[in-house]
Amino acid sequence: MLLPARMAVLNYLSSVENADVNEIMEAMRPLYGKERQFTKDAYLDHVMSLEANGLCSLIRYELDDKDELSLRFAINDDGRAAVEKYVPAKYRNK
Q1: What are phi and psi of 58, to 5 degrees?
Q2: Is residue 93 a part of any domain in this protein?
Q3: What pLDDT is attached to residue 76?
Q4: How far apart are the C-alpha atoms of 64 and 93, rounded to whole Å?
Q5: InterPro entries recorded for this chain (predicted)?
Q6: What is the CATH number of the domain that holds 12?
Q7: Percentage helix, strand, coil for the chain under 3-state DSSP, each rounded to 5
Q8: What is the pLDDT of residue 94?
Q9: How many domains in the chain?
Q10: Would you say 59 and 75 are in contact if contact means Cβ atoms under 8 Å apart?
Q11: Are 93 and 40 in contact (CB under 8 A)?
């Protein structure tokens, strides 16, 4: 069984200092890469929804090497509490 993708994104953010969408997708590719929703637009939507719900924060934005906007997100205390409450221990990233 896999976590829902949005909760998996939050779970991943709990294990890193911060990440952009490309880094999140690269980390999740082994488990979620074959799903039809595994697109940059969908994962950007996931992380922006988490931000809108107060579970992570946009900490920096910049242009990457390809002149595309790179948004960096970090989990906050409410996001960590949600991971602790809703993600079973066997699925949590360390």
Answers
A1: -75, 120
A2: no
A3: 98
A4: 27
A5: WH_DNA-bd_sf (IPR036390)
A6: 1.10.10.10
A7: 50, 15, 35
A8: 65
A9: 1
A10: no
A11: no
Q: Which amino acid is at 79?
A: G
In this structure, what token pair is assigned to residue 6?
């949005």
- Is residue 52 assigned to a domain? yes
What are 78's two structure tokens? 């409410």
Rounded to whole angstroms, how far apart are CA atoms 5 and 35?
10
Domain span including residue 40: 5-88
Q: What is the pTM of this model?
A: 0.93
Residue at 94 is within a domain: no
Q: Which two tokens stand for residue 52?
A: 């809108």
The owner of tokens 């939507």 is 45
Tokens found for residue 25: 């997708």
CA atoms of 43 and 80, how far apart (whole Å): 19
Answer whether 12's CB lies under 8 Å from 93's CB: yes
What backbone torsions phi and psi does residue 5 show, to the nearest 5 degrees? Answer: -55, -45
